[in-house]
Write a structure and sequence with these properties.
Number of strands: 6
Shape: globular
CATH topology: Nuclear Transport Factor 2, Chain: A
CATH architecture: Roll
Strand content: 35-45%
Oligomer: single chain
Helix content: 25-40%
Structural class: alpha+beta
Radius of gyration: 16 Å
Number of domains: 1
């Protein structure tokens, strides 16, 4: 019986994150959810849109909110720009960005994210995301000059 090293566990968690983000971008919510613990806690210090909850406490609720919030967007092209490996192999800090189209306005949407992720038994158990809500508003609203 081999014992998994910290480096091996960290690499598995990185792959879990990459796969989860890929499915999220393709709007494959059920596949994405497979990489999240049922009791996932997710929070946004800067909620992306008005009335968006600052914290959600299950993966089901997170997928519901993301599904509804992204309904009028084309699939997202997420690109990871930096993964910061921490001493704890079950924690990562990741910088990434997205590109999509907001269909009602036929506007390009692109945003940058910084996420803090905790893993438990190979799945994401905590997700804190910093996103620029002003970028979202500009894509979705008309600003008269």
């Amino acid at each position: 019986m081999s014992i998994e090293t910290s480096a091996e566990r960290r690499q598995k968690n990185i792959e879990t994150f990459r796969t989860m983000l890929h499915h999220l971008g393709r709007k494959e919510f059920d596949l994405c959810k497979q990489y999240l613990t049922p009791d996932l806690v997710s929070d946004w210090p800067y909620p992306p849109v008005p009335d968006f909850p600052e914290q959600l406490e299950t993966s089901t609720e997170l997928m519901r909110v993301i599904r509804e919030g992204s309904a009028e967007f084309d699939p997202f092209d997420y690109q990871i720009t930096q993964i910061y490996e921490l001493v704890d192999p079950d924690k990562l800090v990741v910088e990434y960005y997205s590109r999509s189209n907001y269909r009602p306005k036929n506007r390009t949407y692109s945003n940058k994210y910084l996420g803090i992720f905790h893993f438990r038994e190979g799945k994401v158990s905590y997700w804190r995301e910093y996103v620029n809500p002003e970028t979202i508003r500009q894509a979705m609203l008309d600003f008269a000059a």
